[in-house]
Structure formats: C-alpha cells, structure tokens
Design goal:
339 residues, alpha+beta, 3-stranded antiparallel beta sheet, 27% helix, globular
Length: 339
C-alpha cells in the first residue's frame, strides 16, 4: 500500500463536468404554457407555537408549561406561491456537459498522471460513459431536480433542447421512478448517449436547456432553494429563500446534487429498505440522514478505490469503476499530502 500512496500526486484537482445554471421559477397554466410570469418571493410575519422539546423541569410542571406556551413565537419568513389563476410551476435552467476528463486541472506528479491517463483511457474505450450518461439522462427525464416541488404533482413535463444541434426531447416525468437507474426508454437512451459522448470527448461539450412544467395546483405554494442563514440574531428572518434578479430560484448546487444522485452501487443499497440512489460523494455522505454510506473501513470510499484505479490496479467490478469516474465528473481536490 505504501508504494501506491507514494505515487499519488500531492496537488490534484478536477473541474466538474456537469455544470448546471441556477433554476429560474415561473408560474403558468397547464393549458397555456406559453403565458408565464416570474415568481416573486413574499415576506410573511407569522406567530407560531412552541413545539420544541422542553426540559424535564418545564414539561413536568403544568404551570411552567402553560407559561412557556403563552410566549409568542414571532417569525418573519419568505414564501413563494403561484398566482390564483395559475396551476403550473415552470423551472428553467441550462446544463453544460464538458469533456476532457483525462486532463486534471492541476497535477504535480508526471508518473501519476501517466498511469491515471492510461486508466481513464481504458475506461472510456471499454465503457464509453454509457452507464453514467444514461443515469444522468434519467435524472433529467424524471424531474428529480424539482425536489420538494415534485411531490403531489398531477403532471410533470420535461422539455430538453440541445442548444447546438437544436435537437429536443420531451419526457413525462411521472412515468419514471426516481428509485430506478435503469430504463429502456429510447428517448432517455438517446439523450444519455449525447451526454456520454460529451463526457468521453477530449475537448467537446454539450449545452442543454431544460424547461420543466409541474402541475401543482392553483395558487399552491412552491419551493425555491432556502438560503443558509448564519446570523440568526434578533430581527432576522426565520427563513430566507433564494432569488436571482427578483425571480424565485433554485441553487445550481441543488440541481447538480439531484443530477448526480446516481449511486446505487454502495453496499447498503440492496440491504436497507428505503434507500434509493444517493448523490455521488467521496464518502457517500447523505447529510439529512447523518450517514456516510462509503467508509474507508469497508474500502468502498472514493480515495481507496481511486488510488488503486489511477495507479494501475484493476478494481473488483465495473460498478466500482463507474463510481470512481462519477466522482471525477463531480470534480474536486483529491491530492494526498506529502507530510
């Protein structure tokens, strides 16, 4: 193992190859999708109730509990909803798919670079990014990037246009499961091939425009990205939503996380009920579950697999190769310290 570690570059970085824009949100009607208006954030002042867990001294004393409940829980929050005559959310973003994965953006070890390029060239010749391209295409077709806005929708239509060739695809997102990463749909396979060809290229790229219509119901609330508020002092909003030039929006990072939620190769996928595809991460981290599904102890984390893959050791399965390449598509800084 020491021999492998000595070959890893101390300066090693990869640029991400799936580059989504922020998602802009509009309101329209399902019958007349061309007539749309930008959605604006609305600030509300609300009085909530005390609902958090209380200390034993308070919850076991009715008088103290009543005194606590009487306290006003005043909050100012952002919200966003369709207009009374609108029943459909429109989410629009672009996605650039880049090639050149054989070339790290930074690498200070020529011997490592040589073995890495050999490994990646072998993968491209053998697999051609077909599996990854199909999975990314599925996450576009199934509307996973809508996140909470996908729940409780009557219909979802996803329109994708190649801005270079002008070719287009249209998908009924409700006909695809977000839990499956397999599809025989010809349109998905065709889009997946376009994505795979761009990823496998030396310096080519693909530019897609994605426009999604989600019929959520008249005047219903919709959900832009929520901003991380570090300063929650007196007078600060309890919830701050994201907007771009006054238009309610979704973070490019959140869209990107949905598109790279293709990892079904982790060990617990088949053994734990309820776990679907997780986002591609070096340790399989799922923050809302507080769990890492790929640990160094199990030798299933990215660094263990990548160190072997990039220095000439054949991995045990093609699924491990798919995972390693998907992390490289994600991008990041992966150097190993010389100390």
């Amino acid at each position: 193992m020491a021999k492998v570690k000595s070959k890893i570059a101390s300066v090693l970085a990869f640029e991400k190859k799936l580059v989504p824009s922020d998602g802009m949100m509009y309101g329209t009607t399902w019958e007349n999708k061309t007539d749309k208006t930008a959605l604006k954030l609305v600030e509300k002042s609300v009085r909530g109730t005390i609902a958090n867990r209380l200390k034993p001294a308070i919850k076991n004393d009715p008088a103290k509990l009543n005194a606590e409940v009487e306290k006003a829980n005043l909050q100012t929050v952002d919200s966003c909803a369709l207009a009374p005559e609108q029943d459909t959310l429109v989410l629009n973003f672009t996605l650039k798919v880049l090639g050149g994965i054989k070339d790290p953006s930074a690498c200070n070890n020529t011997e490592f670079l040589r073995t890495y390029e050999e490994a990646v060239t072998g993968y491209i010749e053998k697999e051609g990014f077909k599996e990854l391209g199909l999975r990314y295409a599925l996450n576009l077709a199934n509307g996973r990037f809508l996140w909470r806005n996908r729940v409780g929708t009557e219909s979802i239509e996803v329109k994708i246009k190649d801005l270079i060739s002008q070719k287009s695809w249209t998908f009924d997102a409700k006909s695809f499961s977000v839990r499956s990463m397999q599809s025989q749909n010809k349109e998905v396979i065709d889009l997946g091939k376009k994505i795979a060809d761009a990823l496998a290229s030396d310096d080519d790229f693909l530019m897609l425009e994605v426009t999604t219509y989600a019929k959520v119901g008249k005047a219903q609330e919709v959900y832009p990205s929520e901003e991380l508020v570090l300063d929650k002092g007196q007078g600060k909003k309890g919830k701050v939503l994201y907007e771009v030039d006054g238009i309610a929006s979704m973070h490019s990072q959140k869209i990107g996380n949905a598109l790279r939620s293709i990892d079904t190769w982790y060990k617990e996928f088949a053994t734990e009920a309820g776990n679907g595809a997780i986002a591609i991460e070096p340790y399989g981290a799922v923050t809302n579950m507080g769990k890492a599904f790929r640990t160094p102890k199990d030798k299933q984390d990215f660094y263990t697999l990548f160190d072997n893959f990039a220095t000439g050791t054949t991995l045990e399965s093609k699924e491990e190769e798919h995972y390693v390449m998907a992390v490289l598509v994600r991008g990041g800084v992966f150097g190993q310290s010389d100390k």
